[in-house]
Amino acid sequence: MEQSVSTSGAERRAHKTTVQGYIDEQPLWVDGTIAPPSPLTGMQRRIWWLSVAGKFFEGLVVFMTGVALPLIVKEFGLSAAEHGMVGAATLFGILIGASALGGLSDHFGRKPLFIFEMILFAFFLTLIVFTPNFPWLIACLFGMGLALGCDYPTAHLIISESTPTHSRGALVLAAFGFQAAGALIGTAVGYLILSAYPDLESWRWMYATAIVPAALVVLGRLFITESPHWLAVRGRPREAETTLGRLLQRKPRYPNDVRLAATADTEETRRSSGYAALFRGKNLRATVLASVPWFLQDLGTYGIGIFTPTILAAAVGHKREHAQNVADLVSNDLIAAKGAAFIDILLLVGILAAVLLADRLGRIRLQVTGFIGCAIGLSVAAQSVRFDGAARMMLIFAGFMLFNFMTNLGPNAQTYLIAGEVFPTAIRAKGAGFAASFAKIGACLTAFLFPILLADLGASRLLYILVGTSLLGALVTWLFRIETAGLSLEAVGGDAAQALDKEVL
């Protein structure tokens, strides 16, 4: 017998009058039983796809820069120090942008910063195509990094504050996974342009391919809704109700009428919404959990990047050690692009596993398991120094492949997810931005110090140091754990102790 859906769930369950209560609400069958979860609304899907774009562009530009870098070095005649600055400029921009710009969305709103960051990205992306010299190049790369850094907290929050609790983790991580997809596409674009146009100027065409897509994303972001969570805590309940109506517009229509309960005192919220609030009371625990493991994860991830080129050269072919001309340079670059694409596929596999498991097994379990798996992979790779030939290469491959999978299943994905969930709405962007910036300090330190440490300590000792940082990441995660899977953002932000009661391991 055919069943009919009642759209009066809100009226029948009047206690669900918070923002998240309406977002999580399911319709009822006419006999009063709860219907299956409804698909995302059109507005929720639009928000998700436009958030995906930011992560995609990050992977696209960062990995495209890796392909373009040898050509840039040759065209501008860069020294070793200038070479390093090119590689670090975007990374340093992300470090600054995550806190300095991303945190502003707690004050100005999620939507304005969501639009501004993409305008900033498109602006510097266009400029870099026409850059005449090294200083302008650094400025453009840094500017793009600022925009991408702002996207770290903002894209997460714009998704998580507009989607149902039961699918929040999967949706955020699926969007984050497009960073790996962007990396793969960026490498592929670089390879195709190099193949079709083997010239020093071809790196400019690589960046130019992203200009029109970025402009279209700017246009699309103009027509999304503001976060109703943010509007509610800013003392604008009528606007939050109107926004919820737009966000949840569907057929058949439910809820029929949106009426939010009174929120906490707005003045008190504003007094406790500065950066100092991250280091007081229960927020301190959240700050440590969001920041320290992410920092330790970036040490390992960027450290492994130091060893990857040697492995890739052995895997995909032999390159000329000293390029004699542009043709040799392009040939070497094509070899590196092929190898990078191979690694990018591993990133996608790990992120896919994280998407499938984050809401089922929990963030903390996956992060702890991932850190331990990274330590095992690095230990296997460290044993390679005891062997020669095929055995050595097999151990390196096995260790690094395990590391890449486990870091994307665990800490690389889960640190990003946790950072945007464990803070109250009033300081959520500041907390997530601070965590991302703190992590990128580790990335920058690694980029500059690891070549020195590699020469002084050797590969094996350095790998064992990374084993230690991975195990430390697992320990810190467990000691400061706040499990957010299955909990609404209001429950986590309103009383973090609730989350601690949920044992996960």
Automatic annotation (TrEMBL):
<keyword id="KW-0812">Transmembrane</keyword>
<dbReference type="InterPro" id="IPR020846">
    <property type="entry name" value="MFS_dom"/>
</dbReference>
<comment type="similarity">
    <text>Belongs to the major facilitator superfamily. Sugar transporter (TC 2.A.1.1) family.</text>
</comment>
<feature type="transmembrane region" description="Helical">
    <location>
        <begin position="364"/>
        <end position="382"/>
    </location>
</feature>
<protein>
    <submittedName>
        <fullName>MFS transporter</fullName>
    </submittedName>
</protein>
<dbReference type="InterPro" id="IPR005828">
    <property type="entry name" value="MFS_sugar_transport-like"/>
</dbReference>
<feature type="domain" description="Major facilitator superfamily (MFS) profile">
    <location>
        <begin position="47"/>
        <end position="485"/>
    </location>
</feature>
<feature type="transmembrane region" description="Helical">
    <location>
        <begin position="339"/>
        <end position="358"/>
    </location>
</feature>
<keyword id="KW-0472">Membrane</keyword>
<dbReference type="Pfam" id="PF00083">
    <property type="entry name" value="Sugar_tr"/>
</dbReference>
<keyword id="KW-0813">Transport</keyword>
<feature type="transmembrane region" description="Helical">
    <location>
        <begin position="113"/>
        <end position="130"/>
    </location>
</feature>
<feature type="transmembrane region" description="Helical">
    <location>
        <begin position="47"/>
        <end position="73"/>
    </location>
</feature>
<feature type="transmembrane region" description="Helical">
    <location>
        <begin position="136"/>
        <end position="159"/>
    </location>
</feature>
<dbReference type="InterPro" id="IPR036259">
    <property type="entry name" value="MFS_trans_sf"/>
</dbReference>
<keyword id="KW-1133">Transmembrane helix</keyword>
<feature type="transmembrane region" description="Helical">
    <location>
        <begin position="205"/>
        <end position="224"/>
    </location>
</feature>
<feature type="transmembrane region" description="Helical">
    <location>
        <begin position="431"/>
        <end position="455"/>
    </location>
</feature>
<feature type="transmembrane region" description="Helical">
    <location>
        <begin position="394"/>
        <end position="411"/>
    </location>
</feature>
<feature type="transmembrane region" description="Helical">
    <location>
        <begin position="85"/>
        <end position="104"/>
    </location>
</feature>
<feature type="transmembrane region" description="Helical">
    <location>
        <begin position="462"/>
        <end position="480"/>
    </location>
</feature>
<feature type="transmembrane region" description="Helical">
    <location>
        <begin position="171"/>
        <end position="193"/>
    </location>
</feature>
